[in-house]
């Protein structure tokens, strides 16, 4: 961001301070501990949300509690252990850093809330209201809207406000997949990776998937992922044959959006692409789905299919270009 843009951003917030503005940053959530108990508690909360799994609770809950949680939790705990940081869960560490960076960048109170787990929406709202915030910008860290993530965050926010006597003025940012600052931040991260590691023959954008029936019911997520991929390719000056997209993290037996990331990587390797770079534009913070699923499992898939070079491009996390982009996105809504 230029100095003039920075000045505009700062001036906009200065004008707003007569009615103190705060920012509520929201993310999905993470287990407190990388053990079976911690993972089981998190998955129980996460997979009980009808936004995530829209199956009749009378049918789903016995299956979830009796089969899925007892069998899946120990396996997922081992995966978390492989990516856990000394300071905690990567998603928690990076979400905290983003929130702190955004507060410093905008010079306003910012608080982090998780849709599942802690810190809760109520804890974050208490923090912002105690700071005198009468206007709150809600920033879910999901560039592309989905009912499974963005709408679930809205539900958690509404639940947190339900019992309060004072409801502040709210502005809910439901997507920023096509915001130029976000796209340019992604492009900069790709260029920096290329400068350090060399440019692969193909850039694959891997997005978290959703069931096909969600898209058929009106969830615009897939369309927004496609537009993000197109805009990123344009920003990087790539030809259509040099960039593509796929979906990862399938859960359950229902058909999900395709192509699946590992299937696409195998196809690329078998077609003669030797070196591929993978970026995950739907994830603001590195987490289990990027650090383990992509950088370990998908890497192995590509190499076993005949590829020889796999470049993992980290999420934007708390990098300066990401903080600047989020600050501009927040400022633009005021």
Automatic annotation (TrEMBL):
CDD domains: Ferrochelatase_C, Ferrochelatase_N. This is Ferrochelatase. It comes from the Bacteria. It is found in: Cytoplasm. Catalyzes the ferrous insertion into protoporphyrin IX. It comes from Vibrio stylophorae. Pathway: Porphyrin-containing compound metabolism; protoheme biosynthesis; protoheme from protoporphyrin-IX: step 1/1. It catalyses: heme b + 2 H(+) = protoporphyrin IX + Fe(2+); Fe-coproporphyrin III + 2 H(+) = coproporphyrin III + Fe(2+). InterPro entries: Ferrochelatase, Ferrochelatase_AS, Ferrochelatase_C, Ferrochelatase_N. Fe(2+) binds at residues 208, 289. The keyword Oxidoreductase does not apply. Keywords: Cytoplasm, Heme biosynthesis, Iron, Lyase, Metal-binding, Porphyrin biosynthesis. Belongs to the ferrochelatase family. One of its GO terms (molecular function) is lyase activity.
